[in-house]
Amino acid sequence: MADSCCGKTIEVRALEARQKRVLITVLAINAATFLMMVTAAILARSSSLLSGGLDNLGDALTYGLSLAVVGASLRAKARVAVFKGLLILAAAVAVGVQIAWRLAHPAVPLFEAMGVAALLNLAANATCLWLLSPYRHGDVNMASVWECSRNDVWEGVAVFAAAAGVWLFGSGWPDLVVAGALLLLFLRSALRVLASARRELATVRGQGGT
């Protein structure tokens, strides 16, 4: 019996070590992608690129928080998941503000810069999703991280579509349409993460856990 318990403890520790390594890797990828996206957004005058950059920043913060609670109690993980949901919600607000500013100051983005940045962003997001996929059905901490990463892939596809639309129509409206779609995506994801965290907290309270 003692050997069985010891074996389980070792397995849990090994799992936590793998989770930490993955979170450190995706954190670094998102931090680098954020800098690239924001620089490209300024050069290209693109709302969708800036939205993607803000999303990468939020994800880097999210991964840092997730790293901090690997191996922590269920209550702690659920509380961090609530904060991550609020971060996604803040990204949605930022996107809304950027869209409003662009509507007041219309401009045609540079589709060349948008396209290159969008491809690099999509490749980075797909890599993060692949790294996190083994943990998508794990605890609320890793599940919420995977949710953020899946959103990033859709965001990467959408930004590339915006670049193609700007090139095809010679107008800035595809950029704004995609930014609006990302706003809806962020809102949906925030609600999902917050609802999951709320259920987890309710379960912990019901069990009298910590």
Automatic annotation (TrEMBL):
Sequence ranges assigned to domain Cation efflux protein transmembrane in this UniProt record: 23-201
Tree of life domain: Bacteria
Record membrane topology: Multi-pass membrane protein
Subcellular location: Membrane
InterPro entries with a match to the protein in the record: Cation_efflux_TM, Cation_efflux_TMD_sf
Keyword annotations of the record: Membrane, Transmembrane, Transmembrane helix
Residues annotated as transmembrane: 22-44, 56-74, 81-101, 113-132, 153-170, 176-195
Main subcellular location of this protein, as a coarse class: membrane
Protein's name in the database: Cation transporter
